[in-house]
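Title: Comparing notes on inverse folding

I've been comparing how different people in this forum approach sequence design from structure. To keep things fair, I'm posting one structure and asking everyone to reply with a full sequence. Here's the target:
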């Protein structure tokens, strides 16, 4: 790649800035909702432990906690 093509790529990218799926203003609410859902699903999983509940409650709870924790970290200003 020559430097002129890198410069052209840089100029083309500046015309269309990145827009996140979840805006910065709503990251707190999305993170809080996901953490609340994770808490409820984890509680239900803890009350009724069976092999059926692992994919039905355990996996969604862990995904909601993981994404909710990242959104909350970003919402308070600690970028990972």
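Reply #1:
Here's my take.
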């Amino acid at each position: 790649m020559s430097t002129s093509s890198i410069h052209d790529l840089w100029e083309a990218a500046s015309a269309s800035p990145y827009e996140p799926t979840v805006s910065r203003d709503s990251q707190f609410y999305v993170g809080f909702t996901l953490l609340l859902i994770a808490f409820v699903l984890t509680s239900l999983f803890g009350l009724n432990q069976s092999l059926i509940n692992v994919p039905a409650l355990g996996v969604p709870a862990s995904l909601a906690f993981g994404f909710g924790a990242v959104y909350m970290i970003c919402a308070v200003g600690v970028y990972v």
